[in-house]
Description:
This protein is α+β, with helices and mostly antiparallel strands. The protein is built from 17 helices and 18 strands.
Amino acid sequence: METETEPYVRLASLRELHQVVAQLNTARSMADTLQTIADGAVAALGFELATVNLVREDGNLLVAAVAGNDSAEAAMAGRTGSRASWERRLNMGERWGELRFIPYTEGWVLDHDDVPQWHTTGPAPRYPDEWHPMDRLFAPMYASDGELLAVLEVDRPRDGKRPGPWGCEALQLYASQAAIAISNARLRGNMQRALVRLERDQQALRASEESFRQAFEYAPSGMAIAEVGGDGQGRLIRVNDALCRLLGRPAAMLQRYSFADLVHPEDTGVLLRTAAEGGRAELRLQRRDGSYVWVSLRNSVVADVTAGPQVQLTHVEDIEERKRHELALAHRASHDSLTGLPNSAELRARLGGRICDRGAAEPTDVFGGLGTPPGRPYDHHEHVLVPEAPGGDGKGLAVLFCDLDGFKSINDRFGHVCGDAVLVEVARRLEAGVRDNDTVARLGGDEFVVLAEGLGPADASDLAVRLRNGIIPPIRWENRQVRVGASFGIGWAACGMTTEEILESADQRMYVEKRSRSQGRRRAG
Length: 525
């Protein structure tokens, strides 16, 4: 079962992984890119040693970068292994998704082949998932057309364990982004060489134009050339087949548009901010069928010495799969695995993002209208007030703390499977009873929290009654009907309070209501 701290650890690891991935495309050369890949694997993925084995033109693999161990770098860097030996490794390994794992019990047959390696012997593992010094884990890196570009090998996990599902998925995601970085570095190298030739004489110019044409037309990822300046600013002049396939539009149709015409409305600002030379953005472009695809878009301006910027060259890489993985990882870290509702960490993040640590009643202009106090930036935050606060409109951000009544007896009588089914159904009923912009979160166990903005005290009480009435009807489970009740406590969020104070206030009011209802039933009895 996932511990309370694991979502925070995953979020921290995911942020670190994102930072490392962002650095992959900032390297200036292929050598820098490969070393950045090795360094990033050690920094973000929890391994002490990483090597990048680059496929050379002759098919053999060169140890092009090593990170994490100076002795290993001195022993292996610059050495090569035959393609046949590497194919043997990748074919005999256990398939962990796109990864290949060779346990120490099988890898001994590889000890004397020609692939450079850095392994030591050790005792047998003490528990099933303990990492053995002779275990081998490989992440092949492929181009978009299926060509093997390189193999990332990692060793010595810092926690001493074989990576679990989340670790494997993170390594696989990182390897896919590293492959894109290698492809980009290769493409940038080709482009840079073409641009150098453009600056020579007319003969070199004609040769460079042909080289550029081939690199542009046959690039495995999307490429486009757009106008810079004038009435046709941003209009696509030329596109390659890969971009046409990606967007499902023929070249003649694309040449009637600019990227501004195709970008998702929510990403227009991102496109504008990255329009300058060297700009890079991740955004969504519209396909012909109306759907959107996530792409990585990189711009560079091809300039004329005398006339200034002429055209903009744009590289468009399909990152839909990576974005889907990122969203899935982020969702698992911020949502309850049983009900799919936001979890405790996400609830606190949403609540904390709505309030500030300065009370709303604190004056913001004590200098006679001459501006804000020295050292304090202008406050653009819309303060959250309790409904009764002076200057308010009688409405606020209501925090409804819900605790199920009788849930423990269901667990005890019918088991946790039934209890889980009840929690899922209660979550569904709560979501059905609130507005689209309200938040329903599972705090833990049988406790739920609803955040509803723009309510007055009477509105919040009515909402609590409606939600309680929605919960109490029987819930069917395996030809049985079970019932739970619900107690609600209504608190109010306000700037100057902490999230814990807000939740504690609603929790206490819930217990007051529960005691009051219990005493009322005893008097009625």
